[in-house]
Amino acid sequence: MSENIRKIMMMGGAVLLAVTAVMSIVYRDRDFPVVSGWIWKAERQRKDINKKIDVQEKIIEGHMTADQELRQLKAVSFKKNDAVTEIMRSRIEQVFNVSGAKIMTIGSPRKLKGVDGIDLYEINLTAQIKTNELELIAAEFSKPPRLLWRAVNFRPNNMLKPEYLNANLTISAICFHAEEPEETTP
Question: Cα separation of 125 and 56, whole Å?
Answer without folding.
Answer: 36
